[in-house]
Specification:
This is Aminopeptidase P N-terminal domain-containing protein. The chain is an alpha+beta fold. It is 39% helix and 17% strand. The chain has 16 helices and 24 strands. A hairpin with a 2-residue loop joins strand 15 and strand 16. The longest helix has 24 residues.
């Protein structure tokens, strides 16, 4: 088990800002979430009033009533009004067969150990349709015309359980806050499902959601519908709806991408020869959460040296040596929408000649792929372009002198580039994957574009051995071309060297000063990984 040891607070991330910048960042966070002392007082009064509400009136999550500093009237997420969720349900009903039902369970809890749960993360399809951030089951029932009914099945009140976990959504709040047409106890779900499925023309449900809330009960209740061939998957309809983002969703995605990019910018700014991978991973997580993100989008990849070639490296357990690059792949989740950003930089502030050649090869491919990310093209064609361009780059680098361009294009490139150039992005990191790479791109689609080259750490590649470079950005398709949402962190190698070089120089000066005062009784600051 990896344990991190540090003897000073600055190594947790405050040093990335400096006192003034840290104070400013904390001030911005507080002002953005509280606005003013009067708003804070108002929030306290409303929370006190909430204690006197009936159990059924509790929403179990932030609302405008409890968090007016975060949510506007009838908003379920910043900028997302309840009417948008109603429109989403209406759009799903239009895609469903007449007289059918769609069953959408929430995510179930995952546990660290015993009764200790991980922080809850809602299922993306369920959250998209309902705005509910708690465990429950939703049913959309079409009536054969353009209408639909929204049923929500919520856990029954349990005083002892609520003592531990807090109160969850009550039946009154389910109707008033989330606009459910009908609300039932989760205990009624099996009998109700059987009744609805018996009269429905079709039942839309994803039977591969084994870890969803009440999955076993739902599957058993649908046994007869399965036997009659009534069931069909729901996910393709949901992904079709979620693929193109609304203006409100795009605002949240811009914020998520900006938060991640700024945190990565800070990671560059504190890098130096000998920096620890875990320090940078911690710096990133600290930065995004300070800016308002609820969680990381996925474990931070902070691979130094030859580990920059490991696509999903996440051990982050070593120091990065002088002359090595650091590849960081990281993102955050902001009110349900995620980001995914990658940069590669020299920790000492200066690319070697070979590192810069590989980097500039990938950078040019990124530029060309962004030009191709336009309405009418497809993600699949953008990937084909990346293969063509990276194959040309591999030939020009001379890594395999006897290999021709045709050899690389026929598959040899996979030794150096083993993943797709991108994926759709939204409420999940690999979002709406049933849409596929051959769907014609439309304005409002967001995707990650991430070309890369990974030179195996083998003597035959000489000074290129062990160099891994990936550049990844969150990209919005617009009528006028690609908009990079994550441009708050540089990609230009000269800008990167200037940013990292300043920090590396300060680190060398600090080390020199520390050595000149080696007789001091104060022990040196050490950040290390200790294996227990």
């Amino acid at each position: 088990m990896l344990q991190l040891c540090s003897s000073t607070l600055p190594l947790l991330g405050i040093s990335a800002f400096g006192p003034a910048a840290a104070a400013s960042a904390i001030g911005n966070l507080l002002s953005g979430s509280l606005h003013s002392s009067s708003s804070f007082a108002q929030q306290q009064r409303q929370q006190q009033q909430q204690r006197h509400l009936s159990r059924d009136a509790l929403a179990g999550q932030p609302t405008h009533y409890t968090h007016p500093n975060v949510l506007g009237p009838d908003e379920l997420a910043p900028g997302l009004h309840i009417s948008e969720f109603q429109a989403r349900r209406r759009n799903l009903a239009r895609l469903m067969p007449p007289g059918s039902i769609a069953i959408i369970p929430a995510a179930s809890l995952a546990y660290v150990t015993g009764v200790i749960p991980y922080p809850y993360r809602q299922d993306a399809d369920f959250l998209y349709l309902t705005g509910v951030q708690q465990q429950s089951v939703a049913i959309i029932q079409t009536d054969g015309s353009a209408g639909y009914r929204f049923q929500l099945y919520v856990p029954s009140p349990d005083t002892e359980k609520e003592r531990w976990d807090g109160a969850w959504v009550g039946q009154q709040a389910a109707q008033q806050v989330f606009k459910a047409d009908e609300v039932y106890s989760i205990l009624e779900l099996p009998a109700r499902i059987q009744q609805l499925a018996a009269t429905a023309n079709a039942v839309l449900f994803d039977f591969d959601r084994h870890n969803s809330y009440q999955f076993q009960s739902l599957r058993q209740s649908l046994h007869e519908a399965i036997g009659k061939g009534k069931t069909m998957p729901l996910r393709p309809h949901m992904h079709r709806l979620r693929w193109v983002k609304s203006p409100g969703e795009l605002a949240l995605m811009r914020s998520s991408a900006t938060i991640a990019a700024q945190a990565m910018h800070r990671c560059m700014a504190v890098s130096h020869a000998g920096v620890h991978e875990q320090l940078l991973a911690t710096e990133f997580e600290y930065g995004v959460k300070l800016a308002g993100a609820s969680r990381l989008a996925y474990p931070v990849v902070a691979g130094g040296g030859a580990d920059s070639c490991t696509i999903h490296y996440s051990r982050n357990d070593k120091q990065v040596g002088d002359g090595q690059v650091l590849l960081m792949d990281a993102g955050c989740e902001y009110h349900g929408y995620v980001s995914d950003v990658t940069r590669t930089w020299p920790v000492n502030g200066r690319y070697t000649a070979e590192q810069r050649q590989v980097y500039e090869t990938v950078l040019e491919v990124r530029r060309r792929c962004l030009e191709a990310a336009v309405p009418g093209n497809t993600l699949g064609k953008v990937h084909q372009l990346s293969v063509q361009l990276l194959s040309e780059g591999l030939r020009d680098l001379g890594l395999l002198p006897r290999a021709t361009l045709e050899d690389f294009q026929k598959g040899l490139y996979r030794e150096f580039y083993c993943h797709s150039v991108g994926h759709y992005l939204g409420m999940d990191v690999h979002d709406t994957n049933t849409v596929g790479p051959h769907r014609t791109l439309e304005p409002g689609v967001v995707m990650a574009i991430e070309p890369g080259l990974y030179i195996p750490d083998h003597p035959q590649f000489g000074a290129y051995a062990g160099i891994g470079v990936r550049i990844e950005d969150d990209v919005l398709v617009t009528h006028s071309g690609a908009e990079v949402l994550s441009d708050a962190v540089p990609v230009d190698p000269d800008q990167i060297e200037a940013l990292v070089g300043a920090a590396a120089g300060e680190a060398r000066l600090s080390a020199s000063t520390a050595s000149s005062h080696s007789s001091s009784d104060e022990p040196p600051v050490v950040f290390r990984a200790a294996v227990a």
